[in-house]
Amino acid sequence: MLSISSVSRCSAPSFFLSQKPTASRLLTVHSSSTREPNSNQNPGERINYSGVKLEESVDSKSGKSRLDSWISSRISGISRARVQSSIKSGLVSVNGKVIDKVSHNVKAGDKVNCVISELQPLRAEPENIPLDIVYEDENVLVVNKPAHMVVHPAPGNATGTLVNGILHHCSLPTVSSQEVLSGAEDVSDDDDDEGLCSSSHAASVRPGIVHRLDKGTSGLLVVAKDEHSHAHLSEQFKLHTIKRVYVSLTCGVPAPMAGRIDVPIGRDVSNRIRMAAIAEPNRGQARHAASRYKVIEILARGGSALVEWRLETGRTHQIRAHAKYIGIPLLGDEVYGGTQNMALSLLRSRTQPSCHRQLSLSLSGLERPCLHALALGFTHPCTGKEIHFACPPPPDFTEILSQLREMGTEKPSFKE
User: Where is this region: Disordered (predicted)?
Assistant: First the structure.
């Protein structure tokens, strides 16, 4: 089902909406809660949960719960991936029977015995890779990821990734820092999962990566430096309380100019590296996905638009799949239909012939989808304070934006 409804007119950061975006970076901190995430733990303390035992019966208040979720709720600060690893290793029993299925349902009265497994060695090596660090303290790291950088090692990208750079930046030896870097999970199943890798491989090579941006996407990404912070941030993603704002350049202008897309997303059966928005009732493995969008600026007389995106869910390639679904693929997104030929066809019909040569040159040099993670906000896992960051798009994005503005720009009109 496609649902598009009007949304509130929240504006993107003003530094970006100006005709000449500045290179400033914003950070605001204000207290929203005095609650400590774990009163028995020092904020900067790193905990290795290996060998921790849980022997407890499920109470009547828990109702019917997944085994991994229930155990995670009983061991403060542990990541769900760590619990899942323990279950798959045969270290969990329910009513005396070993259970190796993480989605097994437990009910009131079930007796659960669990031993947390040892951490697995990392399969990533530290590399001296320059990182654009926006913010860092003992618990978290916020990075402005450049386009074309892969977040985590995977087949074909074993080196040169953000994970390799973080290992070096934090001076963390591969083995002795397992308690900091392993056990990463994909609670959010983020919209930009480069490579669509398997969870079993990903868990061993994504140090503290709470969410991901695909290779072509630039912008802000938060990394947890200890297991408590990872679990706390993962829970925020699961509850959708993390504030993320993306901006994109699209092929064409959406109609209406602001709305909500509520269409499940699943793997494209005709292309294994692509996801698809699937509205049909019989949609197989497609999962609920909802995105809110708003046109910030109409460009090149309607040939393109600067669009802001806010996610209610975090599915693989969510923005790209939803943009394609409503007929406005992202500029430069060859996988999802925003090809150079399509963009040129739209733009040439709306612009002066004198612009066409330069337009063709600019688009031919565009080597990634025009998508940028502009703003990020979350509750600090140890201080309880709300922290917010914003970082403008890189030059490849802003340069083509400037050219499109020169071909015509107007602000959209919204019905109140």
Answer: 181-200
